[in-house]
């Protein structure tokens, strides 16, 4: 697995960890902690999605010519995840812990299904299609430095 793919998987895990911390805080009735953890989850999620949507997906589409394939599905799932994220955040902000937990349950399922598709299908496709994936994602280049 390339450095880029490992970093993308690490980002998935970081998002999962923050969402799990939020959920644990909600179960304890600690809405302040839940809110902090959820905001961190949301920041991590937005950063990860921006990397995929602005760099990974366009690089894959350019390399393969597939503009109506898996990246369209992933973008659609990103929109669904964002919608559920916003719904959960609204419930947390309204001090509705049970409602937030219900939405987070659905959000967790969707995210896990989404991550499996990316990690087992899309990322390997990207790794096999995008020349120097690390550089395409600004994770560093394997270039020796003599390139211009």
Could you name the ranges where pLDDT drops below 50 across 5 or more consecutive residues?
142-148
How far from one another are the termini?
27 Å
Give me the strand/helix succession. Answer: HHHHH
- Provide the residue-averaged pLDDT: 92
Examine the coordinates and then state which fold CATH places here, giving the name of the CATH topology: Four Helix Bundle (Hemerythrin (Met), subunit A)
Number of DSSP-assigned strands:
0
Q: What is the helix fraction of residues, given as a range?
A: over 70%
Give the name of the CATH architecture.
Up-down Bundle
Biggest sheet: strands, sense, closure? none
**Secondary structure category:** mainly alpha
Total of helices:
5
Structural domains: how many: 1
Q: What is the 3D shape?
A: elongated
Strand content is under 5%
Our Rg estimate from Cα atoms comes to 17 Å
CATH first level: which class?
Mainly Alpha
In short:
By secondary structure, the protein is an all-alpha fold. The chain contains five helices and no strands.
Q: What does this 3D model show about the protein?
A:
This protein is mainly alpha-helical and 148 residues long. It has one domain (3-136): Four Helix Bundle (Hemerythrin (Met), subunit A) (Up-down Bundle). 82% of the residues lie in helices and 0% in strands. The chain is built from five helices and no strands. The chain has helices at residues 3-28, 31-64, 70-93, 97-129, 133-136. Helix 1 (3-28) packs antiparallel against helix 4, helix 2 packs antiparallel against helix 3 (70-93) and helix 2 (31-64) runs parallel beside helix 4. The two termini are 27 Å apart. 26% of the residues are buried.
């Amino acid at each position: 697995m390339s450095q880029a793919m490992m970093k993308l998987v690490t980002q998935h895990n970081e998002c999962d960890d923050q969402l799990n911390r939020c959920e644990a805080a909600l179960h304890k009735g600690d809405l302040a902690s839940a809110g902090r953890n959820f905001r961190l989850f949301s920041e991590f999620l937005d950063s990860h999605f921006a990397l995929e949507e602005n760099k990974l997906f366009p690089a894959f589409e350019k390399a393969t010519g597939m503009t109506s394939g898996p990246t369209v599905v992933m973008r659609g799932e990103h929109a669904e995840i964002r919608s559920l994220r916003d719904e959960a955040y609204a419930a947390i902000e309204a001090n509705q812990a049970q409602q937030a937990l219900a939405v987070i349950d659905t959000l967790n399922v969707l995210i896990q299904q989404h991550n499996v598709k990316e990690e087992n299908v899309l990322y390997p496709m990207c790794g096999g299609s995008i020349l120097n994936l690390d550089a395409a994602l600004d994770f560093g280049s394997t270039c020796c430095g003599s390139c211009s």
